[in-house]
Amino acid sequence: MQLSHALVLSALFMLCAAQLHAQGPEAPAPQVSVPVLDHAIAKGDLLSSGDFTTQDVAETAARGLPRARDIIGMEAARALPAGAMVRSSDVIRPQLVRRGEPVTIALRDGGLSITAQGKALSGGAAGDFVRVVSLATNHTLDGVVEGTGAVRVSAQ
Predict the structure, then answer these.
(1) Within this chain, do residues 146 and 131 fall inside the same structural domain, yes or no?
(2) Would you call 3 helix, strand, or coil by DSSP?
(3) Is residue 79 part of a domain?
């Protein structure tokens, strides 16, 4: 009984192999032109249109890639090698405040405006919440990134 079972499996295997051989070689995968990095990019560098060239790759390899116009102006989240296809996870919004760097802390309430110097305890892009410490009072505050090195805090 076991011998006949083995013969059936063997015959099935031969039939499948013959069908695959009869179909011939697989057709080449469709190619698409995608942007790739022209040169290596360091972590923290902003991407510009001059950083890219185009390369033909298999359509399946290009699935899920962002369009070049969507990543131009973004910041590299890590070092990226030349020839790399840039994925969404490789870039972040430009960081306007970086951890450990000096910031201007602004409090605005009605017609009152107070500014103080501080230090960023976390980094962030425009509109992100960050923690800062006032150098004058040594108090930790939460604020919103308004611009390069500028954080707005609210009256408590």
Answers:
(1) yes
(2) helix
(3) yes
How far apart are the C-alpha atoms of 56 and 58, rounded to whole Å? 7
Show Cβ contacts of residue 35 under 8 Å, excluding neighbours closer than 6 positions: 52, 53, 54, 68, 85, 86
The pLDDT tens digits for 51-66 are 998 888 888 888 888 8
Residue 62 belongs to some domain of the structure: yes
pTM score over 0.70: no
Measured distance CA(91)–CA(15) in Å, rounded: 50
CATH number at residue 140: 2.30.30.760
Q: What is the pLDDT of residues 99-111, one digit of tens each?
A: 999 999 999 888 8
What is the domain range of residue 43? 31-92
Q: What is the predicted pLDDT for the residue at 153?
A: 94
